[in-house]
Fold this protein.
Amino acid sequence: MNVNAFGTISYVDDIDVPANDSNGQNIPHGVTFNSDGTKMYVTESAATETVLQYSLSSAYDVSTASLVSTEDISTDVKLPHAITFSADGTKMFIMDNDDKDVEVYTLSTARDSSTSTWSARFNFNKSIDDQVRGLTFNPEGTKMYIIGAQREVVYQYPLSTPWDVSTVGSKTDSPDLTSDENDPRNIQFNSDGTQLYIAGNENNDMKMYSLSTPYDVTTLSSTFTTFDLGSRFSNMRGFIFAFNFTRLFVTDDTGATNTIFEYSVECSGTCLLYTSDAADE
């Protein structure tokens, strides 16, 4: 069993997200990678909503990232946040915080966002939560999870057909997390679904919850462990752990300079956290 937790994290590098309008605006939100770390995908919104695809000559090393494609998704998405892919890379999912939808794109070439075509959407009930930002799935694509910043609840949906949002069933909810994090930006499970990581724009930290039943957020623990992420970023817009939880990537929106930060995570597997005051120096 591979249970991912992490210890000290250290800043490695960062890259600025290129402006996508004449005023120099760029607002990165969601971020994710392909399975071998040679491609990075970022959702961005300013004058035009886009998916940026980068090629990395050294896996998971943002200092080697080169922008290779910019896909205009503004016809379907008005405020993109989290981005994720199906296991085979032929579907791309984007959380739209404006229309409160999960937008689905089919890719003719797996994990190549430049070959994406809009194909479907899941209409989230905005009366439940009108600030939906985080999105993830279980590994089989039979459960979909959304987190919002109005109620601070993780909404869990079953899918009778894997990765097919037209087969979504009735939701179940996690406990209310408002007192823990009132501005969540994304969520991510560890490799066996027994831990859930949540981070947002309230504080520069990551919260880890345990689940007594894997991938079932109704069994989320009432207590959590907090990991300090330092002070390099000021407005978290998204995050993703990658490379077997040995790397953490955070998108930051400061208004003037918008950045993707890369951190090295001390260990994968089961480990204890200790705080290093020098970790973010």
User: Anything to note?
Assistant: The chain is about 0% helix and 45% strand. The mean pLDDT is 86.
